[in-house]
From TrEMBL:
<comment type="pathway">
    <text>Cofactor biosynthesis; adenosylcobalamin biosynthesis.</text>
</comment>
<dbReference type="InterPro" id="IPR004485">
    <property type="entry name" value="Cobalamin_biosynth_CobD/CbiB"/>
</dbReference>
<keyword id="KW-0812">Transmembrane</keyword>
<keyword id="KW-0472">Membrane</keyword>
<dbReference type="GO" id="GO:0005886">
    <property type="term" value="C:plasma membrane"/>
</dbReference>
<feature type="transmembrane region" description="Helical">
    <location>
        <begin position="12"/>
        <end position="31"/>
    </location>
</feature>
<protein>
    <submittedName>
        <fullName>Cobalamin biosynthesis protein CobD/CbiB</fullName>
    </submittedName>
</protein>
<feature type="transmembrane region" description="Helical">
    <location>
        <begin position="296"/>
        <end position="313"/>
    </location>
</feature>
<feature type="transmembrane region" description="Helical">
    <location>
        <begin position="60"/>
        <end position="83"/>
    </location>
</feature>
<keyword id="KW-0169">Cobalamin biosynthesis</keyword>
<dbReference type="GO" id="GO:0009236">
    <property type="term" value="P:cobalamin biosynthetic process"/>
</dbReference>
<comment type="similarity">
    <text>Belongs to the CobD/CbiB family.</text>
</comment>
<keyword id="KW-1133">Transmembrane helix</keyword>
<feature type="transmembrane region" description="Helical">
    <location>
        <begin position="158"/>
        <end position="182"/>
    </location>
</feature>
<keyword id="KW-1003">Cell membrane</keyword>
<dbReference type="GO" id="GO:0048472">
    <property type="term" value="F:threonine-phosphate decarboxylase activity"/>
</dbReference>
<dbReference type="Pfam" id="PF03186">
    <property type="entry name" value="CobD_Cbib"/>
</dbReference>
Length: 314
């Protein structure tokens, strides 16, 4: 009887194990497949992007440079699933490799370093998880950047990956993850508004537009709904990337602090709206953020399991 039940809920078991392993098994970046893909896309940009190219050439080469490697990887793994003895477990392995949870650990270390007065070390650690310039950041700037990064990366590299996996299976989740890696690798060497990055940024924006709004509205019901709605209306709609604005608005309203604002990329200032009218964040707010993320995670995973059972019982 137990075996029959396990077989009937094999998909749920695979999903839960993949999520559990994402938190308990931290693969080194030295041999993680994501690192290999990031190196490939980074080298592609170095070889393809030339100052003599026109804007149209940049856009075309950028579209090809992101689509060809991603399609190659997705189609290769899709073909391998057909010769796999356990294709569902193969999909679970893909989900595990797509989920990224290391941001929380680094945020804890940044908070600890700031509490010990080691601002320089905190900046160095922050530089490993954000693309913006960190050398001139004040302590408040370090905290803000940590909170912004933690919010954006956790939603995109964990929750949206799960949503795409549940909606359309591991290959859509994989394609989205590879798009994020492509975007991040190019941001490290190019201006964030470079035409070479236009295609990958547009695809990501369109792909995540609806899932982000669905996720934010669901989570707002468990947090400060009225304040989140106010921030979405008055701040998020004026953010440079409205998808990111929605994410930061949720956490700004939940933590009762001001987030986002102007930042520097490659020593060039980019103005952006500050979200929230509350106080500036402190070191303690990083701990509050981690607790909030933990409670959100348990709620979201519990909701996912309940929906899974409800669908299978109908």
């Amino acid at each position: 009887m137990a075996l029959i039940l396990l077989q009937a809920q094999e998909g749920l078991l695979i999903f839960c194990l993949a999520v559990l392993c994402a938190f308990s098994l931290n693969l080194s970046k030295l041999y993680h497949p994501n690192t290999i893909f990031t190196l490939i896309t980074s080298n592609l940009a170095k070889r393809v992007v030339k100052k003599s190219n026109t804007v149209t050439q940049h856009k075309l080469s950028g579209a090809l440079a992101c689509m060809l490697p991603i399609l190659t990887v997705v189609l290769l793994l899709f073909a391998l699933s057909y010769i796999s003895f356990y294709p569902q477990w193969f999909g679970g392995l893909i989900l595990f490799l797509c989920l990224d949870t290391h941001f929380e650990g680094r945020a804890k270390r940044i908070a600890r370093l700031l509490s010990q007065g080691q601002k320089g070390s905190a900046k160095q650690l922050l530089a490993s998880i954000v693309i913006r310039d960190t050398a001139k950041l004040s302590e408040v700037g370090i905290i803000k950047a940590s909170l912004d990064s933690l919010a954006l990366n956790t939603v995109r590299h964990f929750y949206l990956i799960i949503i795409f996996y549940l909606i359309a299976g591991p290959y859509l989740a994989l394609a989205y993850k590879l798009l994020l890696l492509c975007d991040q690798s190019w941001r490290k060497q190019l201006c964030v508004q470079h035409p070479f990055m236009a295609a990958v940024q547009k695809i990501i924006y369109l792909l995540e537009w609806l899932p982000i709004r669905f996720f934010i509205l669901i989570m707002a019901l468990t947090q400060n709904l009225a304040k989140t709605q106010h921030y979405l209306k008055h701040y998020a709609q004026h953010y440079v990337n409205k998808n990111s604005g929605w994410i930061i608005a949720l956490f700004s309203a939940s933590l009762n602090v001001q987030l986002a604002g102007p930042r520097f990329y490659h020593e060039e200032r980019f103005d952006n709206i500050r979200i929230g009218s509350d106080r500036q964040p402190t070191v303690e707010d990083i701990q509050h953020m981690l607790k909030l993320l933990n409670s959100m995670r348990w709620f979201w995973l519990g909701l996912t399991v309940l929906i899974w059972f409800a669908i299978n019982l109908i």
